[in-house]
Amino acid sequence: MRSSRLAALRDSSRRTGVAVLGATAVLGFVASPAEASSYTSYLSNVSPGFESSRWNDSGGTTVIKFTGCRDNYTDTGMHILLRKDVLGIDPAYVNGYFTNCFTSSTAVSTGTWVDHGSGSYYFVVNSGMTGVNVWVNSLTITY
Q1: pLDDT for 30-82, tens place per residue?
Q2: Distance between CA 143 and CA 138 in Å, rounded?
Q3: At a CB cut-off of 8 Å and minimum separation 6, what does 40 contact?
Q4: pTM to 2 decimals?
């Protein structure tokens, strides 16, 4: 009788161990780090100070890539300012100057911003400038 109770206890322990191991595997899968997210769009005749759509970043590097750029002035370049949407005045990070994408309709300019923590981000085109509207055939933001 005692050996049957021990056998039952061992079987119960094995089932519990398998259940815990299975739960750990599932939780490990669910809690694994997220892959980078991105979205693609374009800009058409945007004025200085234009604000992009917001994206929610969980932290990490932000890469903004423009392909095929032009403007209504000199076609030499545009300023891209990364900002974080917060209560109060939004902090501004490094102002990138994109020039290569103006050389052809398939040329690419890329800006990379280091991790500024999680939050809602956006970029501003030609902040503080006047009269220079821009077009971008394709833009991709990876965060």
Answers
A1: 333 456 799 999 999 999 999 999 999 999 999 999 999 999 988 889 999 99
A2: 17
A3: 138, 139, 140, 141
A4: 0.73
